Amino acid sequence: MMVFRILRANLSAGEFKEEVIRDDLLKLFLGGRGLGSYLALREVPRGVDPLDPSNKLYFFSGPLSGVATVSSSRLTVVGKSPLTLSITHSNMGGNSSYWLRRSGYDGLIVEGKAEEPVYIYIKDGEPSIRPAKHLWGKTTGSSTRQLLLENGFPPDETKAGIMVIGPAGENLVRFAGIRGSDYERFAGRGGLGSVMGSKMLKGVMAWGTRRLMDEVVDKGRFMKINNELVRRVTSHPTYQALHSYGTNVLMNIIQSMGGLPAYNFTGRAGDVTPVSGEMIKDKYVVETHGCYNCPIACTQMAAVKAGPFKVPGDKIKYEYENTWALGPNVGDLEPDAVLKLQKAANELGMDTISLGNTLATAVELARKGKLKLDVDWGDSATLIDLAYRIAHRDGIGDELAEGDYRLAIKYKDPESFIGSRGQGVPAYDPRGLKGFALAYYTANRGGDHLEAYTPTWEVFGVPEKVDPLDDSPSGVKKQASIVKWNQDLFAVVDSSVFCKFENLMPNINTENDLASLYNAAFGWNLNGSDVLEIGERIFNVERLFHVREGRWVRDELPSRMRQPIPEGPAKGHSASKMFDEGIRMYYELRGWIDGKPTRDTLKRLGLAEFDYIL
Amino acid sequence: MMVFRILRANLSAGEFKEEVIRDDLLKLFLGGRGLGSYLALREVPRGVDPLDPSNKLYFFSGPLSGVATVSSSRLTVVGKSPLTLSITHSNMGGNSSYWLRRSGYDGLIVEGKAEEPVYIYIKDGEPSIRPAKHLWGKTTGSSTRQLLLENGFPPDETKAGIMVIGPAGENLVRFAGIRGSDYERFAGRGGLGSVMGSKMLKGVMAWGTRRLMDEVVDKGRFMKINNELVRRVTSHPTYQALHSYGTNVLMNIIQSMGGLPAYNFTGRAGDVTPVSGEMIKDKYVVETHGCYNCPIACTQMAAVKAGPFKVPGDKIKYEYENTWALGPNVGDLEPDAVLKLQKAANELGMDTISLGNTLATAVELARKGKLKLDVDWGDSATLIDLAYRIAHRDGIGDELAEGDYRLAIKYKDPESFIGSRGQGVPAYDPRGLKGFALAYYTANRGGDHLEAYTPTWEVFGVPEKVDPLDDSPSGVKKQASIVKWNQDLFAVVDSSVFCKFENLMPNINTENDLASLYNAAFGWNLNGSDVLEIGERIFNVERLFHVREGRWVRDELPSRMRQPIPEGPAKGHSASKMFDEGIRMYYELRGWIDGKPTRDTLKRLGLAEFDYIL
């Protein structure tokens, strides 16, 4: 039997409450994204401004976080998003999840608003609210180091779990993120950093001595499954690619398939080799790293040691997504500049994808003469300058801090926003990798590649190869079922809380592996389809939040995705057919009508309590 | 008869009081620096922390500000300095002085501290304290533009007087400055921007319709003198040099004389042509400009339109002093980078000289292995990054924000601080231009070239040529008397408030011209020596402030200035002889003993009320 311990902090009252989530609720929603979304749907009042004190933040680990080995050390943050104005979830790796659990709590709920800047410090079951005025205005890196220092820890981020916001969160940038230890981990998407900012919460720090393994029911069986998973993962070639080059091993691959967007999805970048994982590994990476206890260790830390884009005295955690967003997407293929801009985003505390989307929209609007701004594609110095201005809402930065969606609407050019539900999309063109024509635009958190990751089939051929350009009736049917299945699975992964990399390995069957781990750990009795049903339940809870808010219920394809891709291997392809035909099949598979669950579906998933929302 | 109208704002109480300074006190101290220093000595409690609410700020125009034409539109700010911990004065051109007077007040005294960020708005005799929370954290340029916008002015800095601080002032950087309109004017030296920050005062804005000329007693005579001055100034070649190239016409000249310091006064820069006034005029200057009504119009506005150091969409007001401080002094001769760093300093709101001094000290300490910092001479990217960190007191920036003096002391390397009274010196090496061996180190505000400007003789030969390397007994005697005379004169110039450029023209006799203007304007009856006596009085009042604080009374030469200059035309020269022998003569001329006025001197100057300080 699993018990999930929650600390509820009310910053207005300056009080803490402890709560326990019982086994029966956990079996329905697990932790992380699932439990957070369920509680948010029950607790966060309808129609509330995300930056109002009555919004809440759920920092949740999952039942297996930091206990299982492979990919397990993640933490999900749930709340109402200032970017999408509906529910969002965003998760980070590193060690914040691990140390939060060791401090005695599996989850932290933050309510209300402090009068002055504060941080929450939890040491071995003893929580306190501490002044953070001296940290307000400071970058994420300085704040993290200062928290270690003033709490008596060595200058080593592995020694405690720390989550902080930077100037962007304090200044309520709609796409501000939350940085986690170690190093430069980010719950980036959805702007929950600015919800922290609105609550005057600079950070959360946790440390403790709770022994997580003591709570595992059948240790022998658990460790056997665990070790077997490690063996299977580390013996696979995808492990080697991620371990050696990190996520940016994708840059050359996706470009060669014609699926790498550039210039705000209006063109194709030339030779992207200078910003590819292989080249950056060779010229810039100085250190590799992993989340707590994870053998994949995909984290690449780069350094720009000289030149006009030097990043003095510090390393840069870089990934495929931010290299794309702040590189080809804004027409910049100069690796020094792209890394410098990534570093600026991390230190100022912004989601790199939405920052890139916003900059790309701004450049497009400027080139069209709609926005008065001295900027062009690849104009590195200006892009870096704008990052600073956005984080401080300084001058034109104040407009850009509203994000790509609002910028495009303001300047009456909606097609320059490429996303859904108010959030811009990441580094795959859904006209060249058509699974994303469904996966991006049905994602509950908006413009998202991590609620279902169709390149697993299209690029990695796992568990089988799917042609990314096939939008024949059978191709569409295949993708609709992949997306639904994958969304359900990943909802569970985000609630456990795991990362998604083990799912990339063909010798892994994630739903069955998760079932086995849960059963061994807590004496449960799940099978793979039970796991998928939990995921489906979670996905429906999030959609119910949209229904209740009366926002983003219908899924929509942005207009640019209906135009043919202009050049490259996917030239002439659009996302229209996949989306228009696929969405009908998808709704049928989900038991939804027009993006909305039916009463029967809710009943089937044990969600009848939310009938009133329909 | 002149009446000087003062507005006294108490930010703690949220109240204003109007006061009038009568003719007899004005005849002793004029306005600006003189009146400010006199009131500060009477009103600011001894030993007070400059960042305590009981420190006061005096924003004072002078009786002739904005009425006389040539050089007259300046405003002096006086207060206790967070950098020197004693009295300082700092003045700006532009139009703040003019608009403050037209709003109905010749001076503004700010006392106390607001609870939340505010700005003071004065519209035609009606002052108000207004919320400025929305401006806090914003750069000086954005804040200025926002104040125009929200008060219904067109986006044109000439239309109102605006003085603001940037992030550096808010974050109490010890050398934060105050930016004035139009454009990028700075009361930079002495860190009074952080005194504004400590009072939560983001800015002061003034506009009005008072007609200054109506208060002139003999308009005909006044205008005749005025017009004659304009004719004499504009017919002189120095006018043409300043008008065409601005102050940075000095770069090549001073370098060719061997008097341009580099690498924190440890070496000599190579070819400084790339950062010279002539070259920057040719390649970067896009606009020239003047202070209100001044025909000299020396302001050069540059633009860096492309490349890694592009300054997007904005112009940079650049001068000789900041080009040196952020160029050769930190080993950087790349003009794009030097201009970008100047712009950063202006927007973040820092004194460019002290920023350059501090960066130079930091580089020296880093090279010596005393300070752990990844930086070297000419490392543009890092220097720019540090400017941001200093302004936000972020990480290492928190240490550097304390300034060069405190940094050198902290790392037990006092010789890496090149200044006096806690403030670093500007762009002339007193070993190659030896007048500064006395002028810098006797300056009341510390490390200063504007209390007496000896290059007038040494470089311009006005009124006669003095050999800058001559420290023979007669040379020393000559410089001691020049410095004393010039300090007295410039104390009057800073109290009128004029700039010092007209004094560079050999057909001008500033003390007589000032006497004539005052007599015509207010029916006074001054001659040139009366004017100089006013200046001497003011200079002694400032010195009394040091005596009262028990700080910086004795003048001292920094140890590096006793070492020979390493290369160039002044190779082998040191400042020791000029200082050691000159200071004795100088004290004698002043009627001082060991840097301290005697009772007789005070009596002679009508300052007997301050006898108690001695």
3D structure, described in words:
Two copies of one chain form a homodimer. By secondary structure, chain A is α+β, with helices and mostly antiparallel strands. Chain A has three domains: 4-215, Aldehyde Ferredoxin Oxidoreductase,  A, domain 1; 261-412, Aldehyde Ferredoxin Oxidoreductase Protein, subunit A, domain 2, CATH 1.10.569.10; 428-614, Aldehyde Ferredoxin Oxidoreductase Protein, subunit A, domain 3 (Orthogonal Bundle). Chain A contains 23 helices and 19 strands. In chain A, the strands form five sheets. The first copy, chain A, has a six-stranded mixed sheet, sandwiched between helices. A six-stranded mixed sheet of chain A has the order 8-7-12-9-10-11, with helices on both faces. A three-stranded antiparallel sheet of chain A has the order 13-14-15. In chain A, helix 17 (435-442) packs across helix 22 (576-590) and helix 19 crosses helix 22 (576-590). The longest helix of chain A is centred in the last third of the chain and has 24 residues, at 473-496. Chain A is globular and about 60 Å long. Chain A starts with a strand and ends in a 10-residue tail after the last helix. The relative contact order of chain A is 0.12. The model of chain A has no long low-confidence stretch (mean pLDDT 96). Chain A binds chain B through residues 137-139, 141-142, 145, 167, 171, 307-313, 337, 373-375, 379-382, 385-386, 388, 392-396, and chain B through 137-139, 141-142, 145, 167, 171, 307-313, 337, 373-375, 379-382, 385-386, 388, 392-395.
